[in-house]
Amino acid sequence: MSSDQNDFLFFEQDYEDDAVIEPTKFWDILIVDDEPEIHSVTKLALSGVEFWGAGLRFHDAYSGAEAIEILAKNNNISVIFLDVVMETDDAGLQVVKRVRDELNNQHVRIILRTGQAGNTPEEKVIREYDINDYKTKTELTRSKLVTSLITAIRSYEQVCQLEYQSNAMNTIVSASKSILGLTDIKQLCKEIIKHMSIILKCSPRGLVCSKLDGDDFIQVLGGCGHYENYFGEKLINVDSKVFKQVESCFDLSKHQHTDSSATFVLKSKHRKAALYIECDHVPLQAQLQFAEIFLTNVSVALDNIRLFVKLRDAAYKDVLTGISNRTNFIERVERYQKPHVNDYVFVLLDIVNFADINNGLGQEVGNKVLIGIVQRLKENYPTAKLLSRIGADVFGFIIRQGELDLKKLNEQLGVPFCAEEHTLPIDFRLGLCQQQDFQSSGIDTLKVAYIALNQAKKTKHKEGIYYSVDMQDKMAWRIGIIRQLRHDFARNKLEVWYQPQLSLDDLSLIGCEALLRWPTGNGSYISPAVFVPLAEDAGLIVDIGQWVLEQACQQQKRLENMGTEICIAVNVSVPQFKVKGYAQNVKNTLLKYGVKPKNIELEVTESVVMDELETVINTLRELQELGMEVAIDDFGTGFSSLSYIQSLPLDRLKIDRAFIKDLPNDDTGAIAALVISLGAKLGLKTIAEGVETQEQAQFLKNLGCDEVQGFMYAKPMPEHELIEFINKR
C-alpha cells in the first residue's frame, strides 16, 4: 500500500500522552479485507478507542469466505469493516447477503469500504440489506473512522436491545426496514411521520426538513396532513413557529418538545435534518427511547436516499459532459409525444469522423472537443430541452420550431473548436424529427431521428434532413431485404453465374467472370446493384464474398477436369480487403480446392483501391506474388489518381461499359483509347465489358484492346449453360 494510502487514516489525528487504561469489556470488531496493510492501519488508527466503558477487540478475515466462517462461529461480532472488492468484484456484497440471509444475523453492523470511488454497491443490496455506512478508504480519516465505528456500535447496541423488547419494539423494527427500501423522498417522509405518530400515539401531522451543506435556508422534504403540499418550499415560508423550533434544534443539536409538538434532529452525514410532528401531549420517556431508536434508521434511510440519487445520476447523466445520457433522454422524451401537436423539433447531431480526432490527437483532445460542443450548444440554445449525449459522438436536444434556424446552427457549429494547442474545424450531420412524428416510446422516437440522421450521413447533407414516413417505409424495406438475404444465404439459395471472356484476336475463350445472382423463387432475380450494397451495410458481404470465391474455385476444377482450363475472375469488395489476413485466406482457399493461383483472378474496383491504399497495395502484392492475377474493374469511373496506377501490382485494366455503349457513332472513343494506351504503356492487358455490337468490337480491336466480354458473345449463365457454351465451341 502506498504512503498516501497509509496517511489517510491519520489525517487530523490528535495524539494524547494520557496513560492507557486497559478496559475489561470489549466490542468485537471484524476487519474483512484482502490487504494485510489495511488490517494493520485500521487497528493502529482505532487503538485506545473506548465506548461506553468498553474497548475494541479485533478479528481478521482476508476473504469473504473466511469472514462467513468467523461469523458462523462467533455471534458476538458488533461491527464489520467490509471491503467491497476482494476475491471477486462483489465479494463484499455477497458477504452482506450471506450474513443477512444464510446466517440470519440482523444485529451485526456493516460498514462497507472500497479503494475505488466508482465501486458503488448495487442499489438493490443497499436497499434490501441493512448496511450501516459506505465509504471509500480515502475518505476515512481517523476521526471519521472513529465516528463511523461509534455510530455503528451505538446502532449495534440498539438493535440488540430491540431483540429483547416488546411487540411495540418489533413494530418499530418493521417500520424501520420499510423506510430503508424507499427511494422517493416524499414517500419516505410520509412513512417516517406515519410510524413516528404510532410511536408517539398521535395523528400523522408533521414534516421532515433539511439544511444542506452550503445552504442558508431550511427546505421541506415532505410531510403529512396539512404539510403534505409544501415539498421543496422554504420552511420559513411554511410556518414561522415551526421554523424557529427547527432552527433552535439545529443550533443546540438536540431534540426538543413542547406540549403540542416534538422536533427531532436527524443525524445525517451530509445535511442537517429534522422531523417535526404535532402531538397533543409531552412524549413519555419510553416513547422518546423508542423514537430515538427509530430515528437511527431514519438517518440511514435519508443517507441511502442520497446514495440512490447518486446512483441514479450515474445511470442517467453523462460523466464527461454532465448532461443527460441516452437512457435519460429516452425516458424523458416520451412526455413530448402529443398527437396533433407540432411545437417542437428533435435535433440529432453527429460529428463526422470523430474517431480520427481520438486516434490522431488522443482521447484527451477528443474529450475537450465534446465538452466544447456541449458548451456551445448551451450558449446558443439556452431554451433547448433535454440536451443529451446520445452516443459517443452524437448529441440531441429538443427545441421549439421557431427557435431553430438550421443555417445559423451550422454556422455556429462551423466555428473551429480549440482543444489544447489545436484548433479543429468540425463537420456535423443533422437528423431532425418534428414533434408530430414523435413516437409513443422514447426509443422509437430516437429510432426515427436516427433514420433521418443516417440519411443525412449517407447523402453527406450538411443542412440537415427531416424524418418522413417514406423514410420509415424504405428502412422497413431495407431491413426486410437484408433479413431475407440472410435467410436465403444461410440456406444456400444464392447462385453464381458466369459470363465468358474472349480474346479479341481469335475469339478464343480465355476465362469468365463469376457473377452473384439472387433468385426470388418466382423465376425472377433481385439485381446485384440492389442487394450487394445492402449486404455490405449489413456485414454479410465478407461471408458471401468468401462463398463466391469457393464456388469459383470448385467450378474451375470441374472445368479443368473436363479438359477446359480457364481463369475465373471474382469480384472483391472493400470490406473483404479490410479483413485481417485476407491474402492468406485466399491462399488457403486455393489450397483447399487444389486450384492453381493463375486460374483465379481478383477484380477490384477503384473505390476498393482508394479506400485504404497502402493496405490494398500490400494485399495485392501478396496475391500477385502467390501467382494470381489482379484486375481493376470499371476503370475510369472512379476517382483514383493516375500516379497510383503505376505502383499498384496489377495485371489487367477493365474498361467500364459506360465508355463502350455509345461506340463508335455517338462516342469518339477517346477515353477507351486512353485506357488501352495507358494499359499498353504499363504492360497491362485491357478487357472491355458490355460489348453488344460488331462495330464496337471492331473499334476496340483497332484501338489495341486485348480482351472482351458482353452480350454480343455471351450473357451471364448458370453452370450447365456454361458447359453447353464450351462444348459447342
From TrEMBL:
Residues 28-152 form the Response regulatory domain. Residues 342-470 form the GGDEF domain. InterPro entries: CheY-like_superfamily (IPR011006), Cyclic-di-GMP_PDE-like (IPR050706), DUF3369 (IPR021800), EAL_dom (IPR001633), EAL_sf (IPR035919), GGDEF_dom (IPR000160), Nucleotide_cyclase (IPR029787), Rev_trsase/Diguanyl_cyclase (IPR043128). This is EAL domain-containing protein. It comes from the Bacteria. Pfam families: DUF3369, EAL, GGDEF, Response_reg. PANTHER family: CYCLIC DI-GMP PHOSPHODIESTERASE PDEF, SIGNALING PROTEIN YKOW. The modification 4-aspartylphosphate is found at residue 83. Keywords: Phosphoprotein. Residues 478-729 form the EAL domain. Gene3D superfamilies: 3.30.70.270, 3.40.50.2300, EAL domain.
